[in-house]
Amino acid sequence: MKGGVSSHMIAIAKNTNKLVTPSNQLVTDTLQRPLRDLRISLTDQCNFRCTYCMPKEIFGPKYQFLKKQNILNFDELMNVVKGFVDCGVKKIRLTGGEPLLRAGICDFIKQLKTIPEIEDIALTTNGEFLPPMAKKLKEAGLDRVTISLDAISDQIFSEMNGRNLNTDKILLAIDSARDAGLAPKVNMVVIKGVNDHDIMPMVNFFKDKKTTLRFIEFMDVGNHNKWNKGQVISGKEILDLIKKSYAIEPVDASYLGEVAKRYRFIDDGTEFGLITSVSQSFCSDCSRARISADGKVYTCLFSQSGTDLLEPIRSGASVEETTQLIKNIWTHRHDRYSELRDEIISRMQNNTKIESSYIGG
């Protein structure tokens, strides 16, 4: 579903007899996939310039980020969240950009915690600002945190983050998250010829720390990361590499639509995961929607356009009307980008996918 939601759609919603979708009613898309997960981008800005997400050559000092008046405030976001919850959402993940750049995030988490249907609130961060905030985030109601770290080598990590930062602050962030009870997981985007030789050092380090490490295949998200399939290290290749050093076994998915394929080391039970969007698509179970900081709903990470909710909300749409608009978006959804990647790329006139920094990856 492309483009914005016009005011006449609000009028249609107002004339609908049954506006509210009970939270226990299954809202499914055209492929019968339920809506269960919502990723909320709190800001499009970030303090890192990771090469696969916000390369500094593009996102330089003159880059125009969203203006404050064009970003959903927290009251407006709560309207959106309640609409998604009424359509079946149970899990929230706060993303960015870097979500910890958004002032008032702890108060927003407290608001989210008042919605009884929400079972889990997580956050994805690069970790630099986390140490002094971890305890406050936990007290506000945050359940879990995922921290991005693409290498244990200072040299590789500093080159990839675009800010010449070493790993010390990020390792401190992981420890602070653990101490606060936020059950940290670590994400590593693997790119051939860039950081693939740090796979086993990362495995060894985080296995010793008994911290879950997840490997993410290099994906063609956005327009500026110079992706090509030859740079992808597949999940199978990573798994085969780990098997050379450790005995492992698969772990059953904890819920339908779980992104990572989970494994554990037999000797100590520490888990790791593989996110294989390129080599082994998981489109068939995808239950995630995304909303950008300026209020556009995206039903796929590889979307070319979204549906605007900011305008109808600022025009006075109630939670019930927002629910109906979200339901209309989801029931028309048919995204299968990862399953159809080669076919879609071959017919694309130009590469106009939404940047991952804008919709939270």
Task: Label the structural class.
Answer: alpha/beta
Main sheet overview = 12 strands, mixed
The helix/strand order is HEHEHEHEHHEHEHEEEEEEHHHH
What is the residue-mean pLDDT, rounded to a whole number? 90
Total DSSP E strands: 12
Give an overview in words.
The protein is 29% helix and 16% strand. The protein is α/β, with parallel strands linked by helices and 361 residues long. The protein has a 12-stranded mixed β-sheet with strand order 7-8-9-6-5-4-3-2-1-10-11-12. Strand 3, helix 4 (134-140) and strand 4 (144-148) form a beta-alpha-beta unit. The radius of gyration is 20 Å and the shape is globular. The protein starts with 6 loop residues before the first helix and ends with a helix.
In short:
With 361 residues, this protein is α/β, with parallel strands linked by helices. Helix content is 29%, strand content 16%. It is globular, with a radius of gyration of 20 Å.
